[in-house]
Amino acid sequence: MTQEEKRLYRISYELRQKAVDMVYHAKTGHAAPSLSMAEMIAALYFDILNLDPENPHWPDRDRFVLSKGHACPIYYAALAKRGFFPEEDLMQYRALNSKLQGHPDMRKCPGVDMTTGSLGNGVAAAVGMALIGKKDHRDHYVFAIAGDGEIQEGIVWEAALYAGNAGLDNLILFVDNNGLQSGGSVKNIQDLGDIAAKFQAYKWDTQVIDGHNITEIRAAVETAKGRKGTPSAIIAKTVKGRGVSFMENQYLWHMKAPNDAEYAQASEELGKAVKQYE
């Protein structure tokens, strides 16, 4: 493991801790859906995305859309750590009139490129942003993360059809494939079958990776950037609630705040993980 990879793993667990802190403090929110995408968020915000926190609306920045907007605690944690706003503001999560709403709001929160929350719409918005980038002859990329339960939405596939036919090779979509959604197993609720094959049928380049492996995440993005004439879908196999033992693979933690004892245990486990990468 390189020092850079070690740094990114450490950040992923620091972000997990902040996400759990926020949900515990607010007594509501989505912790487990945040934890499954921690390595992806860490790699994007601390290695891959071309951004300027001092100029959030810089025209040539890479764009990011969190289509699974309910998982915003870890998104906000990354934006704060990256310097878009003070980290102490994180405890305003879900507070009345806060810039850190229960779903990201681009009008309120610095660094948020698209308001999301209505599932599937973020993917469609990312396609539109990539299309405008092409029409304006800009060389930035549009990244998005969608949940596997989320892509049961029809709007995702309308957008995917357009993106494939338009050859939007400036669009890179991660699918957080943890196999669970709010009501149970994705397979039992609305089986998606072979997700990669579905995107391939819509003229997307696809890769299947371990979504908790920093090396694979970074390599997949480099591969995606090398694909010309096609958008890219990176199917990231993940574990819902990753890093907190009692949340892992438990759909009932989709939206639930830990009590005092659970918070103490989660903090202990995540703290040990952070130290492992120091």
Question: How would you explain this protein's 3D organization?
Answer:
There is one protein chain. The chain is of the alpha/beta class. The protein has one domain: Thiamin diphosphate (ThDP)-binding fold, Pyr/PP domains (Rossmann fold, 3-Layer(aba) Sandwich). The chain contains ten helices and seven strands. It has helices at 3-26, 32-35, 38-48, 72-82, 121-135, 154-166, 186-190, 195-201, 214-226, 260-276; strands at 63-66, 142-147, 171-177, 180-181, 184-185, 205-210, 232-237. It has a five-stranded parallel sheet, with helices on both faces. Strands 4-5 form a two-stranded antiparallel sheet. Helix 9 (214-226) links the parallel strand 6 (205-210) and strand 7. Helix 1 (3-26) packs across helix 3 and helix 3 (38-48) packs across helix 9. The mean pLDDT is 97.
Give a quick set of tags describing it.
single chain, 278 residues, alpha/beta, Rossmann fold, five-stranded parallel beta sheet, two-stranded antiparallel sheet, 10 helices, globular
How do the helices and strands follow one another from N- to C-terminus? HHHEHHEHEEEHHEHEH
Question: Care to count the β-strands?
Answer: 7
Main β-sheet, spatial strand arrangement:
1-2-3-7-6
Number of helices: 10
CATH-assigned fold name:
Rossmann fold
Q: What proportion of the residues is helical, as a percent range?
A: 40-55%
Structural class: alpha/beta
Which spans of ≥5 residues are poorly predicted at pLDDT below 50?
none
Question: How many strands, what sense, and barrel or not for the largest sheet?
Answer: 5 strands, parallel
* Coarse shape: globular
Give the class-level CATH name: Alpha Beta
Q: Give the N-to-C terminal Cα separation.
A: 13 Å
CATH architectural grouping: 3-Layer(aba) Sandwich
What is the CATH homologous superfamily assignment? Thiamin diphosphate (ThDP)-binding fold, Pyr/PP domains
* Beta-strand fraction estimate: 5-15%
Q: How many domains make up the coordinates?
A: 1
